[in-house]
Automatic annotation (TrEMBL):
<dbReference type="InterPro" id="IPR036390">
    <property type="entry name" value="WH_DNA-bd_sf"/>
</dbReference>
<dbReference type="InterPro" id="IPR036388">
    <property type="entry name" value="WH-like_DNA-bd_sf"/>
</dbReference>
<protein>
    <submittedName>
        <fullName>Transcriptional regulator</fullName>
    </submittedName>
</protein>
<feature type="domain" description="Winged helix DNA-binding">
    <location>
        <begin position="13"/>
        <end position="92"/>
    </location>
</feature>
<dbReference type="Pfam" id="PF13601">
    <property type="entry name" value="HTH_34"/>
</dbReference>
<dbReference type="InterPro" id="IPR027395">
    <property type="entry name" value="WH_DNA-bd_dom"/>
</dbReference>
Length: 97
């Protein structure tokens, strides 16, 4: 039986952002942009959606005179990511291999 895939995480860019954040303590906007290759505008929209869902925390501050946006995955985000991976495995039938 297939488990439902979380539509919020099924987006390629949002899944990429979550994959980055699950493997690091936190990541700034520039790092996420470099790793995903997405435009700044698209990343802004997607991290806002993830933040609204409670999957990530966004902290804005300054590094010198430059603004700095730092993202960190929440426990809710970790749980959602792990559930997504488990649901994906049900489609891939990984258990039998």
């Amino acid at each position: 039986m297939f488990k439902e895939l979380n539509p919020l995480l099924h987006s390629e860019l949002r899944l990429g952002i979550m994959s980055i954040l699950i493997s690091v303590e936190e990541a700034d906007f520039v790092y996420i942009r470099e790793k995903t290759g997405a435009t700044a505008g698209n990343i802004s929209v997607q991290i806002e959606k993830l933040s609204e869902a409670g999957y990530i925390e966004i902290n804005k501050g300054f590094l010198g005179k430059r603004t700095r946006t730092v993202c960190k995955i929440t426990q809710k985000g970790v749980n959602a990511f792990e559930e997504y991976v488990e649901a994906l495995k049900s489609y891939l039938n990984v258990k039998g291999r």
